[in-house]
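Try it yourself: sequence plus NAP, in.
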Amino acid sequence: MVKTAFIGAGRMASAIVDGLIAKSPDEKSKIRCFSASGTSATALSQRTGISHADDLPALLADAEVVVVAFKPQHLASADPRLAELTAGKIVLSVLAAKTVAQLATVFPRARNIIRTMPNTPSAIGAGITGWCAKNELSEDDRTVVVSLLGAIGREIEILESKIDGLMGVSGCGPAFVFEFTASLRDGGVAAGLTLEEAEQLAIETVLGSARLMARSSLSPEELRNQVTSPHGTTYAGLQRMAAHDIRGIMKEAVLAAKARSEELSRTS
Ligand SMILES: NC(=O)c1ccc[n+]([C@@H]2O[C@H](COP(=O)([O-])OP(=O)(O)OC[C@H]3O[C@@H](n4cnc5c(N)ncnc54)[C@H](OP(=O)(O)O)[C@@H]3O)[C@@H](O)[C@H]2O)c1
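Structure, out:
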């Protein structure tokens, strides 16, 4: 009996499949995938041991949950048979900027539609996924959704009206953190370290600080204050960051990403 069917077998589908199998290896026999050319579906099934289907009816016949994991631009040309083939099933989409209403035109008879916004650390099980459901979820269906998204990290249920804002923080946030890390590294090079030394120090510092924030009950500001003595070294650096309005810059970055996400939802 196939429980979870993936339409699309690329990076995001792989991350979820890896997470599901890592959590319970027996799930392998209950997962099937399909992709347009068959290339990525064959590769995913060979790598993980899940099965793959050659067409949508074979993929979906006995599926309970359908994970939609192709590129957002392919939704408009999705196979019209999907309307019937997903009747009565839970459809969970990872398509960026595709609203529940847009998804409902392709999956009108689904039992429920879940719109999700994962982020790239999902690939190593360290993601944070925002999600919302079309209809109120039964307890059983909520367990299914939470367990599926839990396979790639943490999850947070959020109003659909806030998903574009979430995109600006957690969707695009990894790239903002990568950019910050590169800037910290470049600062180290300017301070006389080699590129390799500076990069290792910058990455480990971001990683360790993130772990500390996640474990601590203190806010980021309180943790910052703990390592900032008046007129000390950290204070000197923070003064420069404030002079360039780092907070204003980050707010602008998040709002620009949110605006672009809204625009993509309207126009795609
Ligand atoms: N990667 C991320 O970190 C990330 C984060 C958040 C959200 N997402 C979302 O995840 C989705 C997938 O992204 P990805 O990075 O996994 O893309 P990807 O690696 O390029 O994979 C796309 C997959 O879709 C398949 N495909 C293309 N057209 C199809 C169709 N008409 N029917 C069925 N399958 C089709 C491709 O199959 P073949 O190549 O075998 O034809 C491939 O398996 C996107 O909607 C994206 O918005 C991704």
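One thing you can check immediately is this: The chain has a mean pLDDT of 96.
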